[in-house]
Amino acid sequence: MSRAGKGLLLLFACTLLGAFADASAAPGGAGMGLYPLGLVAVALLMVQGTARLALAAVAVVATSVSLWQFGVSLPLALTFGLSGVAAALAALRVLRESQGELRMRTEFDLLRVVVAANLGGLIVAVPIGLVGALSGVDEVAALIAGSFVDMTASLILWLPLAMRGRDAPSLATWPERAAQWTLLVTATLTIFATSFTTEFPYVVLVLLMWAGLRLSLLETLLQLIVVRLVITHFTAMGKGPYVGATHDRNLPDDLQMVYVQIFLITCSVAVVALNISSARARAESRREALAKADQVAERKLNTVFEALEAERSALEEMREVDRVKDAFVSTVSHELRTPITNIIGYTEMLEDGDFGRLSPDQSEATVRIGDNGRRLLSLIDDLLDLSRLRAEKMEIAQNPVDLVAVVRAGEQAILPRLRSAEVSLEMDLPPYPVTVTGEAEKLERVLVNLMSNAVKFTPPLGRVAVRLTQEGTWAIIEVSDTGYGIPEEDLDRLFSQFFRSSVSQEKHIQGTGLGLSIVRSIVESHGGQVEVASRVNVGTTFRVYLPT
């Protein structure tokens, strides 16, 4: 709905309320105590420019005709309509509506409403008094006082509806709101529909203050409107505590209504001020809570960022140390390989008698030198392979490889160790080729490392079994033994570099702790994976899965 449409709708509501008020008012007070001209100001707020002037003209006509139809003289009705609309326009000017959205957020905003309402009351009271005097109305002073107080009360009641309060939700739950509404309506009807003393209306004020503390501004204003309609209706009908409260003086009905309007002004100002204070306190409390939460969150985030930065720095340092270590190992290994190869070559020449015949003791010493040299060369080769793998420099050839042939080659390489260790070997190979893609030499090294470990960790008269199968798209090489087994707590670290299990240390079994790490690297570079299962004093089984 457009702003002009909203303004017309409010003006229509204003006219209906005025008609209801005048129809129920006492004859002498028609139009003076009940007509809700303050709602005209709210209607005028809905439009701008020329539309506002047009709506003001319609409001003058509607107000004047309504009052004239219900018994007010035509001069007074016309004056009341003109002055009432002028009062509404003046009130809007005081509120500086042209400077932006009207707000009801501080006590100063409420003070501006009170000033605007009093100005509107004067704008209505003065011309009404002049026209009344010229028309020969009795008790002109009462007419002026009634008009002033009535317009002031009307503007104080309706103007806050056009102003935006703090976005503070109601604190009350639905049961509390229902109880408060019920008590308020019941108390208002009971007190003003019957004869009570003038102290009882303040029960209504207390219930309205409950609304000011706990409810939103809009709901509080709605309760004030309901209370005003109920109170003015019953008072105009000659009921309630303010009827006859004129100290036995014969005063006009309009002046009697002044008591009611003063009470309503008191209720409106007190309750709206209380609601503003409550909303501001809640807003400040939320703001402080959010500020504290932000501070806590900022401290925690700073702590997290500092920890992450420290961790990142530590990780970078570890990577640098790792890189330097790999470079050192690679360089040293290359430098050691050449002299050790020469040592092994010369020992082989000595064993072959190229430098003369050796005595038995010399020959045995030469064999030991060669064996240890070959062990050292094997360690260097492991270090170089591991360094290439870690640097992602080990390239795997994409050739078809028959795993049956690879297993047979590994068997030939391990036979000398089987004889010296007095361990038997069982082979279970399929009669057909099992082909994978990769590099035969490196896969053979996987088999040799696994079978060598099986032999080393199996006591004499034990058994090592090698089995090759194919399941779906996977070729499975299984190497098992009946050896010492591996403790469960060592299984997670078994493939780590330089790790040697507690069994190898207890049994004094030689090794570098690199073999299984190289096995896993080679298998994973072929797109496969390695699994291990072991029980202490029962045996160990390694399974290598390679895609076919």
List strands and helices in order, with pairings.
Elements (H helix, E strand, L loop, with lengths): L2 H22 L13 H8 L4 H20 L4 H21 L8 E2 L2 H28 L5 H19 L5 E2 L8 H19 L8 H14 L2 H20 L16 H99 L8 H31 L8 E4 H19 L2 E5 L6 E4 L1 H17 L6 E9 L2 E8 L6 H4 L10 H5 L8 H11 L3 E7 L3 E9 L1
Parallel strand pairs: 1-2, 4-6
Antiparallel strand pairs: 3-5, 6-7, 7-9, 8-9
Helix pairs in contact: 1-2, 1-3, 2-3, 2-4, 2-6, 3-4, 4-5, 5-6, 6-10, 7-8, 7-9, 8-9, 8-10, 9-10, 10-11, 11-16, 12-13, 13-16
EC number: 2.7.13.3
Protein name: histidine kinase
Organism: Nocardioides daphniae
Question: How many helices?
Answer: 16
Strand segment count = 9
State the low-pLDDT regions, or none: 18-34
Shape, please? Answer: rod-shaped
Average pLDDT metric? 79
Question: How many angstroms separate the termini?
Answer: 74 Å
Percent range for β-strand residues: 5-15%
Alpha-beta content class: alpha/beta
Q: Largest sheet, if any?
A: 5 strands, mixed
Strand and helix order:
HHHHEHHEHHHHHEHEEHEEHHHEE
Description:
This protein has 548 residues and is α/β, with parallel strands linked by helices. It is 65% helix and 9% strand. It contains 16 helices and 9 strands. The strands form 3 sheets. The protein has a 5-stranded mixed beta sheet, with helices on one face. The radius of gyration is 51 Å and the shape is rod-shaped.
For this entry, give a set of tags:
two-component regulatory system; two-stranded parallel sheet; alpha/beta; 16 helices; phosphoprotein; kinase; five-stranded mixed β-sheet; 9% strand; 548 residues; rod-shaped; transferase; membrane
